[in-house]
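COMPLEX REQUEST
Ligand: manganese (II) ion
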Amino acid sequence: MTLSEENYLKAIYHLGRDAKGAISTNAIAEVMATKASSVTDMIKKLADKGLVKYKRYQGANLTEDGRLYAISVIRKHRLWELFLVEKLNFSWDEVHDVAEQLEHVKSDKLIEELDAFLDFPSVDPHGDPIPDKDGNIQASAKVLLATLKTGEKGVCVGVKNSSRAFLQYLDRLEVSLGKELTVLGKEPFDNSIAIRVGDTAIHISSLAANNLYVKKL
Amino acid sequence: MTLSEENYLKAIYHLGRDAKGAISTNAIAEVMATKASSVTDMIKKLADKGLVKYKRYQGANLTEDGRLYAISVIRKHRLWELFLVEKLNFSWDEVHDVAEQLEHVKSDKLIEELDAFLDFPSVDPHGDPIPDKDGNIQASAKVLLATLKTGEKGVCVGVKNSSRAFLQYLDRLEVSLGKELTVLGKEPFDNSIAIRVGDTAIHISSLAANNLYVKKL
DNA sequence: AGTTAATTTTAGACAGAGCTAAAAATTTAT
DNA sequence: ATAAATTTTTAGCTCTGTCTAAAATTAACT
Ligand SMILES: [Mn+2]
Ligand SMILES: [Mn+2]
Ligand SMILES: [Mn+2]
Ligand SMILES: [Mn+2]
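STATUS: Structure written out below.
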């Protein structure tokens, strides 16, 4: 499997998490920052290898083999991200690009030993679950902050969007995973949400609240 | 810089350590396990980038830029090898292939933090020096075991050949870096060398003795 | 339904890295 | 000093993964 094939599998997997039916060529092209024609070529190749199901003009879906392969790459990505934060002093907004490279290193021993070195962690620095060796993913009961009602409390457990801009914004707000917060109310004017984190009360935009996962308390 | 270009630079650097003048196309093809015609193409590309000096039919040499780039890749290789042994329970004969992949990951922060995480080590698991951030390489006073005379003592500090076969052979002989040994004598018949390591006396072939570095005591 | 718009696929090219076979240059032998 | 052998380069192909432009198909609108 080439680096490129692995990235396509990951992209199709992630798109499949949201969307219901088949994944469109255009959607894949969008997230891969490439052209639809290139996607068509690659999808055919992956279909030949039995990793995706594909019918002309009807989009693609991962086969079970493809799904497992995608998950194995995601496992590596998230373990490396955690390694970078835990052991090498990276911050959560610096790890993604490096993990994009490290996830393609081929060595079973490497990844299993890394897993052990990190003490078999269950989530990465962004709160995303780390699949186990066999591809099982621990589901967690997280909801978007935006869904909490006034007065409800939650603890931050993850981000939906892990762009540097959002992560650094959260840093400036001093919102980090593990922190408890309480919803004080919603502003009808712009749908922003007033929350209390520790001692301080802050306003968080609707967009931000729709990208921050919390576990209800 | 592509993965392939980095590998060529490393190969030319290592060949230059031994050989005196320019490095021949054939020699590079040999160590890269490729064909001379492919080497010619790549050398031209590297020459265009100012990383090697090249005159048709006259072989190649690294420029100062090329030398520094090669050393930076070797630095990464050796730091990763040490990481694998020290932190992830790899043995010294398992690390090379994985390090060949990891050495191409691009991130200055990654490698500097890895260096710090390992406590700024000076040698890799095979006794090879780890270049510092600026490309300086600590020279050490090692000599081949084969050069020791009867009665001389030394401590193992490195291997010249780090093939798995040789490393595993040393493991079976219970010869590892840091061990002290004494030369008991040479066998005229096959040039093998009798040595004492710890309590036990063993015979080591001439070939092996020409691939094991010791520091004289 | 019929036309227009959008999506998807095909056809043809290209850059990177490699190969084989043939030509050119250099080295070695007679 | 020639001829033979070896090394190196060139020419032409192949394989990935990408692109553009054009054709085919599907979706959206009167
Ligand atoms: Mn990531
Ligand atoms: Mn992540
Ligand atoms: Mn190595
Ligand atoms: Mn080494």
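REMARKS: The first helix of chain B runs from residue 3 to 18. The pocket of manganese (II) ion (ligand 3) is lined by residues B 77, 81, 96, 99, 162 (CB under 6 Å).
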